[in-house]
Amino acid sequence: MAHQRTYLVLENYIGGKFTPCSSHIDSYDPSTGEVYCKVPDSGEQEVELAISAAQEAFPEWSSKSPEARSQILYKLADLIEAHLEEFAQAESKDQGKTITVARNIEIPRASYNFRFFASSILHHTTDCTQMDRMSCTHFTTRTPVGVAGLISPWNMPLYLLTWKIAPAIAMGNTVIAKPSEMTSVTAWMMCKLFDEAGLPPGVVNIVFGTGPRVGTAIVSHPNVPLISFTGSTSTAQYIREASAPYCKRLSLELGGKNPAIIFDDANLDECVSTTVRSSFSNQGEICLCTSRIFVQKNLYKAFLEKFVEASRKWKVGLPSDLTANMGALISKEHLQKVKGYISQAQKEGGKILCGEGIESLDIPDKNKMGYFLLPTVITDMMDDSCCMQEEIFGPVTCVVPFETEEEVIQRANNVKFGLAATVWSQDVGRVHRVAKKLHTGMVWTNCWLIRDLNLPFGGMKASGVGREGAKDSFEFFTEVKTITMKH
Ligand SMILES: NC(=O)C1=CN([C@@H]2O[C@H](COP(=O)(O)OP(=O)(O)OC[C@H]3O[C@@H](n4cnc5c(N)ncnc54)[C@H](O)[C@@H]3O)[C@@H](O)[C@H]2O)C=CC1
Ligand SMILES: N/C(=C\C=C\C(=O)O)C(=O)O
């Protein structure tokens, strides 16, 4: 008898109920290249139902006290934490990331996102000014905006989705959310917890499917006044155009081409180990990953030697391997795209020092069709080459020398993106000068990716519009009104 394959079949979550979909998209296990899950291929009809459910839930949810909403968010955080291991296993299988990253970083952060905004809404204040000469007091009020459209990517699935859902509902909005069709499993699992957490039906609706069908229907819907999106700059451009007729409020968190600037007085061991991490964490699939490393001439040779040695030790393995530093990339297409950049670099005169084409992968036979790639270090690249200008979003990084502070600032700024940078030096004055002159939304000095969720997260130039964080998300997810009282 022929062996019948069984798949994990996801359902939309609309108005507090799981609703099946008649057609599905194949979702692949990146470590084997095999289909293991079927994701609803929803369209306009499902989006309409979800927006209606969100509109219906809005009056009651938005009039709840912050304390009441906060309790529900805390409960949801507790429930995610109680199921941490199931979420971590599912995220690692669905995305290809290591179980270590899913278990120790991403799922705990998804739970913390709810806890963070559950607390932060209890401490909001609004502005008030006095105008005694006119016998007036002015003050502002803030109210939720309405139905929030939230679209998230595949690189940190639950972590980035909850970073949007938590502030949106904490401030009293209701939600239609669309995770990436490539990584929908943990969002679906989270829906199973909403009822137990006490979230009323319709407050969060999740519609699974592709960008062109579900995403387009959300961003061009007149009853969704606000869109928060994380993903590529090209999709963001489309969203700006599609939403323009409705004057929607947009928060766009996009790609980066993040420089590491390493001066010759930097602590070499620390900057090598952190820059390996910043280049290759999560397979280089984080918008904050370093992909251009500028090293001051006197340190260049020593840095390169140690950096290549450390990159070779950055172990690629199965996502379930506890000793692996890196798992599989998200998809076959993405793997081809990243490899394409490496070939292009060689055509443009680049020299590959380790990784793709130099060493071989050590992966079990049953995973040979998985989307694995070794951490790859390239030198001898011109600043205007593809690999130095475009977002690769994979484990590929370029190392180039520089001589002076002025020169490196100009070269680091010479890309269309402006998300994040790292600066390495023991000269405090220099660190401050350089950080101020970089055209990026975030600068980490002598460290990387240490986050205070209170402070603004986001980029300049093609890296985005708007910021997320305690105060910024409060402002984005609420409508402000100025009231003047004459007395
Ligand atoms: N966090 C980041 O900065 C991310 C950057 N990227 C960059 O984008 C490149 C392409 O990756 P993609 O998966 O194609 O990113 P993408 O921007 O197309 O996908 C992000 C989200 O947008 C949705 N989407 C796609 N088309 C849409 C549309 N027309 N309307 C509304 N939503 C839409 C997707 O379904 C997904 O949920 C990557 O190689 C990487 O360079 C991708 C994902 C995350
Ligand atoms: N937005 C992304 C990463 C965020 C990291 C953080 O909030 O700590 C991304 O990769 O798109």
UniProtKB/TrEMBL annotation:
Residues 22-483 form the Aldehyde dehydrogenase domain. It comes from the Eukaryota. One of its GO terms (cellular component) is cytoplasm. Its main location: cytoplasm. Keywords: Cytoplasm, NAD, Oxidoreductase. Belongs to the aldehyde dehydrogenase family. The keyword Flavoprotein does not apply. Its EC number is 1.2.1.32. It is found in: Cytoplasm. One of its GO terms (biological process) is retinoic acid metabolic process. Catalyzes the NAD-dependent oxidation of 2-aminomuconic semialdehyde of the kynurenine metabolic pathway in L-tryptophan degradation. GO terms for molecular function: aminomuconate-semialdehyde dehydrogenase activity; retinal dehydrogenase (NAD+) activity. The keyword Oxidoreductase applies. This is 2-aminomuconic semialdehyde dehydrogenase. The active site is at E253. It catalyses: 2-aminomuconate 6-semialdehyde + NAD(+) + H2O = (2Z,4E)-2-aminomuconate + NADH + 2 H(+).
